[in-house]
User: Which sequence fits this backbone?
């Protein structure tokens, strides 16, 4: 994707089960980085503001029924829409190259983990995501499905069920590689925040030094 090694922002992705605390940790990290003077944006998938996002939201809240393949492709389209936003120009790439670090709450891994948990084919699930930018860092907030369920407040959405989350956890295990940073989500909030901040800052520095951008699953 990037031929030269110019300074740029980092693409930092957070993954984990529902109720693993991703959204609050992303928010804290965003404030921390902004406080340190970094150019940073917080993105979240699914992006429920677009028309495709609204179809996803209706599905997740059981207001519509879609077959597993269709919803898989809608989640992927939702990422491509945000990635591309300006015709022929990658919004994500433009931001990163302008030096902005993107903190992304869920990315392609969520979709593959959730769809393969429904027994869809692994390679088929990965295919629509090919060509999106590969993250510089994936932070996995690690919590057992049982502990996550104890946190309460499952949002009442389609996937908020212990049995299904157990399957998702198994499928995340198959997706993880050695580059993922696994953070124990059951530590105190302050400890999680501190650990995440340290890991992310290391990656921001590497990207400022000109780490090359690559494509997902290339
Ligand atoms: N989800 C999220 C997927 O199944 N595939 C995806 O690609 C993404 C981004 O949406 N249960 C699922 C995981 C969640 C649900 O996400 C809503 P959140 O982070 O709770 O808004």
Assistant:
């Amino acid at each position: 994707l990037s031929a030269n090694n110019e300074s740029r922002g980092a693409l930092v992705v957070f993954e984990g089960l529902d109720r693993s605390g991703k959204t609050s940790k992303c928010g804290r990290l965003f404030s921390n980085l902004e406080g340190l003077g970094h150019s940073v944006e917080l993105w979240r998938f699914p992006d429920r503001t677009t028309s495709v996002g609204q179809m996803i939201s209706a599905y997740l809240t059981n207001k519509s029924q879609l077959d597993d393949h269709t919803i898989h492709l809608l989640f992927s389209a939702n990422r491509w829409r945000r990635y591309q936003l300006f015709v022929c120009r990658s919004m994500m790439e433009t931001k990163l190259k302008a030096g902005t670090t993107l903190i992304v709450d869920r990315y392609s891994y969520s979709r593959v983990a959730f769809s393969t948990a429904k027994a869809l084919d692994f390679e088929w699930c990965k295919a629509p995501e090919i060509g999106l930018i590969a993250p510089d860092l994936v932070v996995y907030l690690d919590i057992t499905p049982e502990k996550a369920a104890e946190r309460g407040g499952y949002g009442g959405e389609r996937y908020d069920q212990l049995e299904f989350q157990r399957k998702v956890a198994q499928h995340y295990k198959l997706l993880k590689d050695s580059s993922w940073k696994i953070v124990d989500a059951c530590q105190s909030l302050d400890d999680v925040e501190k650990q995440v901040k340290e890991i992310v800052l290391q990656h921001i520095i590497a990207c400022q030094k000109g780490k090359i951008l690559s494509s997902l699953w290339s």
Residues 11-208 form a domain with the Rossmann fold fold (CATH 3.40.50.300). The beta strands are 11-16, 40-44, 101-105, 137-142, 181-184. The chain has a mean pLDDT of 93. The radius of gyration is 17 Å.
